[in-house]
């Protein structure tokens, strides 16, 4: 005998910060909902794991700054402790440059970025241009161009040859921090915040509940998942576009909506956490920050705490991550160690633990830190996804009006989407009550 499906008003798919924020917004408004998460944990691209020393560390999204108001407010409300990232001392550029040359090269690369952002995203003269093609047209010194490439591929974890120029400009304009995005990290881990938010949801949150099919019609949806079947008035798909495109919709989504889901590609990143007995680089007047111009997308910085926890994080982003992930575990560790030794000296080989998280082709998030549009003609993709096709709605950090690809953006996107869903529910209920 087949059991009756569970019924609710809203189903949210995905318990990253977008889904969690939307769920809490609905809960505060008294809306009945269920939140489904395919993983056995919440947080999405924010994750904490234990390293080889048994220390709890952020293996996913970690950093924030004071210009991210929603995230800052949440952390304060939940009693989290911010650790200020150590930045005092010399920044190391690889291959080695003098301090004066390094500063000049950095400023020149930022000038390229400022020049790029001065272009309107809808300027017809850049239609069809990739970031790489535009960069080739610039007359800046090659060292500045190399630094710009490394910075952008490190931030967006995607090859410049794949990024439409208009899309990068549009994204960059929404990232409005005036202080470094590496300003702080959370002593208790960023993931501990996701866990705190999840506890407020009680049994409305279902883990290990991968959605297998979404049936939809006017004013109703029916979701089959590994945890059972749920019927609702509406569904909010709160996962990255690449993952949303993999869901099975019945009937298929409208052509424009399906196309808008299909023009995205996830970034590729490997996050490496390296523990040392002491922060030796600080003793040598170094900040621990290293950028490799000859290996675009490779970047390191200090994530040590004041309790004797001395550590560097190394980000491997974009095409470099795709190459290095093929090396295998031992060779990847050897490569990372060798690069740190070249940049910081022989003490960089005195590692007491090295752990890493390969986010490339992740089963439930596609990759990291976010998805990017890779079709230069898809200028209406975001607007189409944000419009959705009732009763199906979409939200993700990538679609946020502020800080796309960041935890801050996910929080904002989730709250906006929840309010939109609530408004449509109230309108539908009012219409039904009036008998029209």
UniProtKB/TrEMBL annotation:
Transmembrane spans: none
Which cofactors does this gene product need? FAD
- List ligand-binding residues for substrate: 315
Keywords assigned by UniProt, alphabetized: Oxidoreductase
Q: Does the keyword Membrane apply?
A: no
MF (Gene Ontology): oxidoreductase activity
Q: Which domain of life is it from?
A: Bacteria
Which amino acid positions bind FAD, per UniProt?
A: 18, 37-38, 211, 398
Q: Which residues form the Amine oxidase domain?
A: 17-422
What InterPro entries has UniProt attached to this entry?
Answer: Amino_oxidase, FAD/NAD-bd_sf, Flavin_amine_oxidase, Flavin_MAO
Recorded family membership = Belongs to the flavin monoamine oxidase family.
**Protein's recorded name:** Monoamine oxidase
